[in-house]
Amino acid sequence: xxxxxxxxxxxxxxxxxxxxxxxxxxxxxxxxxxxxxxxxxxxxxxxxxxxxxxxxxxxxxxxxxxxxxxxxxxxxxxxxxxxxxxxxxxxxxxxxxxxxxxxxxxxxxxxxxxxxxxxxxxxxxxxxxxxxxxxxxxxxxxxxxxxxxxxxxxxxxxxxxxxxxxxxxxxxxxxxxxxxxxxxxxxxxxxxxxxxxxxxxxxxxxxxxxxxxxxxxxxxxxxxxxxxxxxxxxxxxxxxxxxxxxxxxxxxxxxxxxxxxxxxxxxxxxxxxxxxxxxxxxxxxxxxxxxxxxxxxxxxxxxxxxxxxxxxxxxxxxxxxxxxxxxxxxxxxxxxxxxxxxxxxxxxxxxxxxxxxxxxxxxxxxxxxxxxxxxxxxxxxxxxxxxxxxxxxxxxxxxxxxxxxxxxxxxxxxxxxxxxxxxxxxxxxxxxxxxxxxxxxxxxxxxxxxxxxxxxxxxxxxxxxxxxxxxxxxxxxxxxxxxxxxxxxxxxxxxxxxxxxxxxxxxxxxxxxxxxxxxxxxxxxxxxxxxxxxxxxxxxxxxxxxxxxxxxxxxxxxxxxxxxxxxxxxxxxxxxxxxxxxxxxxxxxxxxxxxxxxxxxxxxxxxxxxxxxxxxxxxxxxxxxxxxxxxxxxxxxxxxxxxxxxxxxxxxxxxxxxxxxxxxxxxxxxxxxxxxxxxxxxxxxxxxxxxxxxxxxxxxxx
Length: 702
Description:
Number of helices: 16
CATH topology of the largest domain: Glycosyltransferase
């Protein structure tokens, strides 16, 4: 059973099947989260002092309903039924409890909600044994006539969570910390709380989970007539530090649902036009993916401070702007939802690096890797507040800028972002390494990411013996992105910015890159490109899926491109569910490894688009069918990553990867990319014709 996960506008609520929050951590933490912090770590409902039995579990991503009853027997069924409805809109979780009396006599039921907020940073909740001091931090609790307000302070940092109820609770009392929640540090007992329903705040020392004395029990005594009902509504509002002011949230539960539905429908309608090459299962996966993308949009700011909604990377760990993830997601969705690309480009232009900052791997013109808003990032206890450890976000920014103009036939955005594009191209040629090293390169960041391509886990860029590549690493797929970025930026320079001299220079650099790439990367004995070059120029010889990205960018000649495409469909790569990140049979392969054996739908989507570019349409169909089957076994939603085990019988499902995000943006957009690969055939190649009319892009078929 998949527990309910509500997602909206950069916030999410991970709940139990009954709608509770227990304060868990590790692989799947629960709670109400906003801007990288947990604003509700405890939310437990009891009826007459006992947790109710879940008759119908909650499920859903926009709103959810659980049906709860008291423990009973066939001869003595529950005297009441509780309908627990929950919905998330922006920074507010709304809950409506409707209690129905099933008996012929009056009934009094005591409902109580145990509430607490630990304000834990998401980096604290990961199961990686890291500890953070957080000096000077302290929690506060303020009882109010309509509920309670939890606060967390650390210097200028101040976040709150407010619980209000209609009708107000009959009483608000201190509640002890639960025995079932494991903490990294022993909780401090704090100081005694004031009397219930006073407005005097009390302060307790911080810990990683709800503290003794910092939780509250809100209690109501509902008196129900025979076969009658009673209801109450609760609002839990998170106010993270630094969060922009949001429009007033709707009050009534029906209003909340109506607004959520209206906002989602504005994005999800209309669906893609039916096409005979697209089967019903893929259309369902596309619909699910578009719905998930609607919920994964988060607020960001453009260059002039305007608000835009960009695709966040995924839940639970990455509900924020990620350069690479947001760019590839927008690429996949471009033919269907071009507004995502515009929003992503504007947000990334606004956060483009200016002055160098080695602590953040920032260099002028570089596009950001990720942005974090949490306490640890704010105080630089982690480097990810605005972190630039990505070798590929910058070329992908340039490819998307041109692709958006080409798709929409509107060059206004390209004209507006010309200075940002020129700065990005200058970074590629200068600090990025194209002129100095001949390739885009990165070096390990000891405080951040050791690998800075899409396979960014430690050890992912490895030789066949499993040894990690070191030094100035040039990963293969980033060179393909760079080639494509140079070609596309040259087209913009020629037809939109009217700088023919710069366009010619970029085209020349692109052709030089394409010419030297096979000499350095191609492994003749394998008839396959190396995963990377290490700092000594040695070929990192593990056979990896990154080679498929070279087809998407077009850097390989037709013969080598088709050779690589067919090689990726052999059984050591293709599991029957998708293409593995690393071919099986090699020493570092592990089917449960994040980047050394798992199957990533977005990786396969890039490969599918590349297969189509090189005319391998049978292979596209095989790959798209496998991924569509996998999606169907996950409720038509592809996860971030699946295990690399071989597909068995028709009744089997993909083995899950235990730490996979879901929903996750580029996995949600993967069905759209598969649809494009199946329906578009060979895409147009860029033309050097500079006679195109102003405001239009010129292209021809190869």
